[in-house]
Amino acid sequence: MAKRTRRVGYGLPVVLAIGVHIVALLLTMLRLPESEPIPSSSSVVQATLVSDVTATDKAQYAKEAKARAAKRQAEEAAQQAAEQQAQEAAREQAEQQAAQAQAEQQAAADAARAEAQRRQQAAEQAAAERAEAARQQQAAEAEQQRQVQIQKQKAAEAKKQAEAEKQRKAEEAKKQAEAEKQREAEEAKKQAEAEKQRKAEEAKKQAEAEKQREAEEAKKKAEAEKKRQAEEAKKKAEAEKKRQAEEAKKKAAAEAKKKAEAAAKAASQNALNDSIANEEERIANAQQSNQASNSFINLVKRAVEDQWHLPPNADGSLVTQVRVRLGPSGELLAATVTRSSGNPSFDRSATQAVEAAAPFRELQQLDAGLQRRFRDFNLKFTPGDIQ
Amino acid sequence: MNDSMSIPHLIMNASLVVQVVMLLLLAASVASWVVIFQRSFALARAKKAQREFDERFWSGIDLNELYQDVPENHEAQGAEHVFRAGFREFNRLMPKTRSSEAVLDGVQRSQRVALSREEDRLNANLTLLATVASASPYIGLFGTVWGIMGSFQSLSMAQQATLSTVAPWIAEALVATAMGLFAAIPAVIFYNRLSSIASRLLGEYEDFAEEFHSILHRNLQGRGSSQSA
Fold first, then answer.
1. Neighboring chain B residues of A18 at a CB cutoff of 8 Å
2. Taking CB atoms and an 8 Å limit, are B167 and A348 in contact across chains?
3. Residues B35, B195 contacting (CB under 8 angstroms)
4. pLDDT over threshold 80, residue A327
5. pTM here?
6. Which residues pair with A380 in a beta bridge?
7. CA dist list (Å): B43 to A6, A18, B21, B29
8. What is the pLDDT of residue A338?
9. Distance between CA B133 and CA B32 in Å, rounded?
10. Which residues on chain B are in Cβ contact (under 8 Å) with A352?
11. CA A251/CA A243 separation, integer angstroms
């Protein structure tokens, strides 16, 4: 038996036993610090249920305030931009309208003017026509008269001649024969009369033809003139219109260019505005979620209020803040007093109210981001109400 | 968990009697664990030695050689101790008496003594485990009852009895029970396990003693017949 067996000593067992106890103690101790930082690290956002909250909440508030300010600025900027745009648009529109109006007015004026001109011209023409016609008539009349006079003169001459002849003839007839004289006189008279009549008719015809021709000519002329003038006016109006249209177009183009430039400027300005808009959207989302969460917070508050039994020795000045941490399905993980009121029974009543109100199953109805957010929030208890 | 409700905080805030009870329980727990480790090692070693001796004894070695091979300052344990006690007695009695019955009686007696000592050694300190296992729940319960008594005494002074006024007291009182159970449960488990190992070893020793006795008896019968012949 080479091997020497000895009694087993107590040194090693004692060390081992103490080791076992230390391990056991550490297990109970370690669980506490371990269990706390994990939720606190996961609770990036604390519920802003109370007005005066922890530093992280304040930071968040500040952030929110900043965001709000940014949003307001963005809104203002947007508003300004919108206003500017609106103004621009209005101005543009006004300008356009003005241009249009102007164009219209001009056109109208032109048209009026043209019309007036035309009318005037027409009137003038008509007047001229009339005048001409009158003149022509007069001329015709005068001619007629003249012709008549001439004829009369002629007639008178003829008469005279005839008389003279008559006298002479009469003398002759007197001399020759009174019958013949009478016949000749009659013949002459007849001839004269025929001649006169023919001449008068001729003159009349001529005058009439002349008049007609002249009237026609005048009419033609007037018509041509009218046409020409109308065409001219039309052309002018068209040219004017074209010009105005071009001008308007040009103006519009310039305006558009200006607008585009402004838009570009706005776009470049909105390089910042874009991000602001994004943030705005985010804030809008946040606000929406805030609304959703407010209902959840109100629910929690009501449930906790219902379960809160105020200790009899609590006076109105006590304030305690309880941090509530929830599991994913709304079950209560922990309700700890983060700011004691100094009255332990009051503190305990607050935590017990939260414990009694749990679980908050409504948490499951919130969406994932909000759920994460509302797994950790603070409740402030004051006698009278829970804030 | 609230910091004011942590176990160390509760222990520090407990009343004196409860604290003493807790200290006692802690000591009992430590002691029971010391015994558990010590006995575990000792029994493991005894099992190993038993196996080795068994192999050696039944390898066909001469008994005198086996007896003398063992150094004197070595304290024999287990079956070896039984063998040595019996063989020494046999050697001592052989020259003095011719009666084989007397020799065998003496050997048997000395073996019985050796066995009794081995049993004693195997079961040493296991009684402590048994005591801790059975007593520490009661001790813990005592601490709890004492703590609850204290809580009710303080409650009588309060105007309004809410759960919140009783809860800390009961919590710290219940820590005592928890500690009692913490000490008792391993003690019970290991007491059962260690005592079963010890009794099995003891059975093996007894079996060996009987076998050795039969060997000696066979030898004596042979010698008696040769002498008579």
1. 30
2. yes
3. no
4. no
5. 0.43
6. A321
7. 12, 21, 32, 21
8. 84
9. 9
10. 163-164
11. 12
Q: How far is A85 from chain B (nearest CA, A)?
A: 60
Percent of residues, chain A, with pLDDT higher than 90: 2
Cα B82 from Cα B204, distance rounded (Å): 11
**How many CA atoms within 13 Å lie on the side-chain side of B65?**
6
> Could you please report the per-residue DSSP string of B63-119?
HHHHHHHS-TTS---HHHHHHHHHHHHHHHHTTT---HHHHHHHHHHHHHHHHHHHH
Distance to chain B for A365, nearest Cα, Å:
27
Q: How far is CA A39 from CA A327, A366, B213, B224, in A?
A: 10, 19, 72, 88
Question: Residues of A at the B interface (Cβ-Cβ below 8 Å)?
Answer: 1, 3-10, 12-14, 16-18, 20-21, 24, 28-29, 32, 35, 309, 311-313, 334, 336-337, 345, 348-349, 351-352
Q: Which residues of B touch A334 (CB under 8 A)?
A: 1-2
- Condensed to tens digits (0 to 9), the pLDDT of residues A59-115 reads 455 556 656 666 677 666 666 666 666 666 666 666 666 666 566 666 656 665 666
Say if the Cβ atoms of A348 and B33 lie within 8 Å.
no
- Closest residue in B to A18 (Cα–Cα): B30
Is the separation of the CB atoms in A110 and A237 below 8 Å? yes
* A237-290 pLDDT, tens digit each: 777 777 777 777 777 777 777 777 776 666 666 677 667 777 777 777 767 766
Q: Is A108 left (phi over 0), alpha (psi -120 to 50) or beta?
A: alpha
State the smallest CA–CA distance between residue B224 and chain A in angstroms: 32
Structure tokens at A36: 């706390």
C-beta atoms of A17 and B167 within 8 A: no
Give the integer Cα–Cα distance in Å for B181 and B171: 15
Domain spans of chain A, in order of start:
47-78+278-386, 81-160+197-275
Question: Per this entry, what is the length of chain B?
Answer: 229
Examine the pLDDT at A367 and tell me if it is beyond 60: yes
Class level of CATH domain A47-78+278-386: alpha beta
Contacts of B207 (CB under 8 A, 6+ apart): none
Q: What is the pLDDT of residues B34-78, one digit of tens each?
A: 999 999 999 999 999 899 888 988 888 888 888 887 666 667 778
Cβ distance of B160 and A312 shorter than 8 Å: yes
Is B30's CB within 8 Å of A18's CB? yes
Contact: B56, A349; criterion CB under 8 Å: no
- Judged by CB atoms closer than 8 Å, whether chains meet at A21 and B29 is answered as yes
Closest CA to B227 of B94, B86, B126: B94
